[in-house]
Every structure is written in C-alpha cells, then in structure tokens.
C-alpha cells in the first residue's frame, strides 16, 4: 500500500508543480512528513530525509517538464542559466543549514513558508507589473503562437541575487523554488507567464541537481521511497506541462492556495506542540 501512496504523491506533485511552476516539492515534503509521522504507511521520515528525497524527485520533475516545454519553445535558457548562477550556491548552503533542524523547528519554519507561498498565489494576479527594469541592458523577447511579441529584461546581478534566496529555500525545505521565482519573473521582470513557468522549471532542474548532490553526501536520501515517487512525478510533470499550454491555471491555483494555507497552519501547530 505504501508504494501506491508514494506513486500518487509523486503524480500529484509532478502535475501541480509543472502546471503552475512550483516544482512539486511543496507537495512532496509535507506529504512525506504527514505519512511518516501519523500513519503506518511510511517510516523513518525525518526532515532531512523528506527534503533530500524530495530534491531527488525534483530532478525528474524539472527534467520531464523542461523537455515538454522545450517542444513548445517556451524555455529561456540564457535567463535560466543566469538565475542558476545564484540558485546553485544558495541551494548548497540551504542543504547544509537543513541538517541542524529538528522536526519541530522544521515544521514551524516550513509552515510559515508555505503560508507565505499561499499569500503570494493569492495576491499575484492583483499586483501590477513593475517596469523599472525594462531599460536594463539585458533584454529578451518572446513571440507567442498568436504572433504577439513580449519584451522583458532584468539586471543579471539582481536576477542572480534573487535566485540565490530561492535556491536557499529550495535546499532548506526541499521545494523547487518556483513558488517565489515565477511571481518575481512575471511581476518584476515582465516575463510572459508561460515563459516564466517553463524557465522556472529549467532552473528547478539545475538547482535540484546541485542541492540533491549535497543531500546525497549528507546521507539524506531514502532511495526506495525515491524510486517509488519518481515514476508518478515524471508522468505528472508531463501532464502538468501539457495542461499549462491548454488551460488557464487560475482555478487550480485557487484550490491550491487553500490547501497550502491549511497545510501550513497544521505544520505550525505541530511545530509549536
């Protein structure tokens, strides 16, 4: 039964993560902690194991969705590599900080972070894009299937600096980082939404490679659980990237932010106890 649960967790995380650019870890980590602490399905789950195993899954989620987005030509490789220059080192530092957290502290910090993510999802459509960086020297353009050309840009140092923070949270909490990166790319740097999500998943893939290597070195991977999660995450990511090109994700985002708030409050309650 535990293998069925893990496949379902992977499928759900891959689909949601790829569809809205979250990476999926924000689903995997709380699910592993819940089933490891309050059911008989999974055992020996610590915050370090949950995070390390989640980041292994993020490699496959990021790769699967990136390959799908490549077919639609929505991945901005150059911008993604600039972001990775910051997120890569940040993810390593986050992974090292994670090793000193006990279950209560981790639940508390993760709970607050998840609620912050839910708030960002709540308000991001109400915020106005900031055009202050559109005169920067680094400029990009994207033409959608309807022939409309988007122009966007950002100072590379600022982009890499913001990605460093995103990478740190990824290595610390085992999430993909897209929960922070996608809104920033859309609102601050004026990325087209589909390009922001696709490029975010490309960065998630690269950052997960780096941070998961650190967790492997620290012995934080449950390989049996990872092998059960990977197939669902792989096909879920492809499913999510397909829906991303066909559907407006607003309905899913509304449901997701309610779930995240409930999960965040529950984690905070557990941490305080």
TrEMBL record:
<dbReference type="Pfam" id="PF01925">
    <property type="entry name" value="TauE"/>
</dbReference>
<feature type="transmembrane region" description="Helical">
    <location>
        <begin position="255"/>
        <end position="272"/>
    </location>
</feature>
<feature type="transmembrane region" description="Helical">
    <location>
        <begin position="45"/>
        <end position="67"/>
    </location>
</feature>
<keyword id="KW-1003">Cell membrane</keyword>
<feature type="transmembrane region" description="Helical">
    <location>
        <begin position="109"/>
        <end position="127"/>
    </location>
</feature>
<dbReference type="InterPro" id="IPR051598">
    <property type="entry name" value="TSUP/Inactive_protease-like"/>
</dbReference>
<comment type="similarity">
    <text>Belongs to the 4-toluene sulfonate uptake permease (TSUP) (TC 2.A.102) family.</text>
</comment>
<dbReference type="InterPro" id="IPR002781">
    <property type="entry name" value="TM_pro_TauE-like"/>
</dbReference>
<feature type="transmembrane region" description="Helical">
    <location>
        <begin position="223"/>
        <end position="243"/>
    </location>
</feature>
<feature type="transmembrane region" description="Helical">
    <location>
        <begin position="148"/>
        <end position="166"/>
    </location>
</feature>
<keyword id="KW-0812">Transmembrane</keyword>
<keyword id="KW-0472">Membrane</keyword>
<protein>
    <recommendedName>
        <fullName>Probable membrane transporter protein</fullName>
    </recommendedName>
</protein>
<keyword id="KW-1133">Transmembrane helix</keyword>
<feature type="transmembrane region" description="Helical">
    <location>
        <begin position="79"/>
        <end position="97"/>
    </location>
</feature>
<feature type="transmembrane region" description="Helical">
    <location>
        <begin position="7"/>
        <end position="33"/>
    </location>
</feature>
